[in-house]
Amino acid sequence: MAELPECAVDGRGQAETARIIREEAGVISDVQVLEVLRRLRHESTGVGPLEHLLAIDGVTDVVVNGSGAVWFDTGDGMHRADETFTSDAEVRTLATRLAALCGRRLDDAHPFADGRMCRADGTAVRVHALLSPPAEEGTCISLRVLRQATLGLDALAARGAVSPEIAELLRSIVRSRRSLLVVGGTGSGKTTLLSALLAEVPHRERIVCIEDTAELHPPHPHVINLVARQANAEGIGEITMSDLLRQALRMRPDRIVVGEIRGAEVVDLLTALNTGHDGGAGTVHANSLAELPARFEALGALGGLGRTALHSQLAAALRVVVSVRRSPSGQRRVHQIGVLEGNPVTVVPVWDAGSGELGGFGALRESVGA
User: Fold this and answer.
1) CATH number, domain 46-146, options 3.30.450.370, 3.40.50.300, 3.90.320.10, 3.40.640.10
2) Any idea where the Bacterial type II secretion system protein E domain is (predicted)?
């Protein structure tokens, strides 16, 4: 077949591409030409036949479970899409191309890949792919849409995510330079709330945000974003969260923020918060306030920090924990506020969305000047 023009799939050369298709194919209808053009576009740009699912307003995830099942989530649970693939080979081809776009290797010798790609509309998509085998149902693709968190506390209050009274308390906590954590499960709104809290930092202060994937973009005039990087296909070029934390300490930060604490970087973060860097913040995956100490013990062990030392560092570094939760209907809201007490550390709830003010709530308000 004749060589197609480079711009064949981006709209600029479709007429020329159609002419070449007709010359090579002989007798062919307009419908067949359009189908060939569609397949060319799907096989060479974006996420192929999944593009229109990513364009759905509010979509957070698109997953492919082999050739016969495609699902998407708009925040209220998974919905099955009408689209399917003709074969596992077609899914595998898409998965391999997406991995290559992310600079990752995906083949029988390395049957899984994880990376990030940027789309033309400015959004980022986290890509995970798993070949068959080991995936029994066929090649699996998981796409997570990473939208930049830019809402403020007032906007969250208007959406019912937080009451005006609690929003004012959170403002006071941030402005009093208390270090805090936002905890919750996957998709509960941790990053959105953290971004809203960072918007309350006085504008004369410099914020350094360290993330695995760039999501924090609070409406604040002085934010520096540092993003970790995985090793490339040759196994070199990795930049870890711990590397970035050490660099951040040399960048004259007023606030050090870790978008998601998930590994050995917890040791460097606690060290920073205990050496004069007040007002730090971050998010942690935990289903409740009570689970936070155990979660930190596990993360500290990854960095070689023992249980006793971890609790001593944690007790001195952090004071306030905010728990967020997503309801079965998809509503994200602040669920609890707690304070860290004792050594070993425990998290004591002082406010609950269902019960209201609990013991210690007045002391917290007084301590932050609310």
Assistant:
1) 3.30.450.370
2) 45-324
